[in-house]
Amino acid sequence: MHKLIETFIVQMHETGTLEWLAVIFGVIEVFFAMYDHIWLYPAGIIGTVLSIYLLLHVQLYADSALNVYYLVMSIYGWVHWSKKSKQKTVLISYSNKQEWVITLSISLVGWLILYLFLKYLTPSNVPIWDALVSSTAWAGMWLLARRKMENWIFFNVSNLFAVPLLFYKNLPLFAILTVILFIVAIAGYFKWKRIYFTEQATPLLEN
Questions:
Q1: Which of 78, 15, 19 is nearest to 44 (CA)?
Q2: Collapsing DSSP states into helix, strand and coil, what is residue 30?
Q3: Of the candidates 206, 93, 99, 83, which has an alpha carbon nearest to the alpha carbon of residue 149?
Q4: 3-state helix, strand, coil in the chain (%, to 5)
Q5: Which residues is 148 bridged to in the sheet?
Q6: For 144-151, which contacts have Cβ atoms below 8 Å and span 24 or more sequence positions?
Q7: Three-state SS at 26
Q8: Helix (H) or strand (E) segment spanning residue 132
């Protein structure tokens, strides 16, 4: 334990300005997201661009590709919110059997494809873990887009494996931010669960 603490302290001392900025903007994004504010998107875009550069530098290629997707979705979300599009609200729900098949396919097939790509086409020294972190996050994002409860579970599987990976790659602030996201995802799951039961009860009250 003492050695781990010493290693962490050394990593913190070696942390560069760009990583500090990426984490700061990541925290700002989470703060604005909690309050449902549009400024979460510009903060997220800045943090994501910095993250892509830093992750490529430490050869976490799958995680870098994942952040490219985050970047695209942040730009889309910013434009979508700005237009104040009035679409029918999609209610929170649990995944059915078909959706579970799709989710597991994204995770497992995505992991295999990413692993093979990283193993044979990049100099990555952590292809298994990097691929797993990204493929489970991809599945989580698909579930989130469909407002499925299980998105929090897949995001936290990704976060769970990402923390030691980021420490290993000497990105301690990213690891700490991921721990925070892990906690937020747990809170998000229970918050969505309360919303789910409220939405289920509303039609009954109206009848």
A1: 78
A2: helix
A3: 93
A4: 80, 0, 15
A5: 93
A6: 146/90, 146/99, 147/90, 147/91, 147/92, 147/93, 148/92, 148/93, 148/94, 148/95, 148/99, 149/92, 149/93, 149/94, 149/95, 149/189, 149/192, 149/193, 149/196, 150/94, 150/95, 150/103
A7: helix
A8: helix 127-145
DSSP string, 100-124: HHHHHHHHHHHHHHHHHHHHHHS--
Q: Has this prediction a pTM greater than 0.85?
A: no
pLDDT tens for each residue of 168-201 = 888 887 888 889 889 888 888 888 888 888 878 7
Contacts 24+ apart (CB under 8 A), 116-122: 117/61, 117/62, 118/61, 118/62, 122/59, 122/61
Cβ pair 137, 106 in contact under 8 A: no
Contact 76, 105 (CB under 8 A): no
Reference 111, options 79, 80, 154; nearest CA is 154
What is the per-residue burial (b if ≥16 Cβ within 10 Å, else e) of 54-64?
bbeebbbbbbb
Name the residue among 167, 181, 182 with its Cα closest to residue 8: 167
Domain locations in the chain as residue ranges: 2-83+92-190+198-206
The residue to which tokens 């990426």 are assigned: 22
- 95 pLDDT higher than 90: yes
pLDDT in tens, 56-68: 988 888 888 888 8
